Please model this.
Amino acid sequence: MTFSSVSFIMKNKVKEIRESRLVSKAELARKAGISPITVDRVESGMSCRMDTKRKIIRALGLKLSDAASVFGEGS
Model:
């Protein structure tokens, strides 16, 4: 297996925050302008682009400065 074929799993709080705000995956996807499959992948810990993180953070009604608390350090 090569390095490029490895998907990194990273713990994040997207699902926890989404559920605490009573938002469905479909609604988060619609607000963020991403697919529900992408939301599912992010919530399961798959890595994603910085732009996707930004869209999710804004769709959850958070500030971009909250990125580290949502996605972990270095986000």
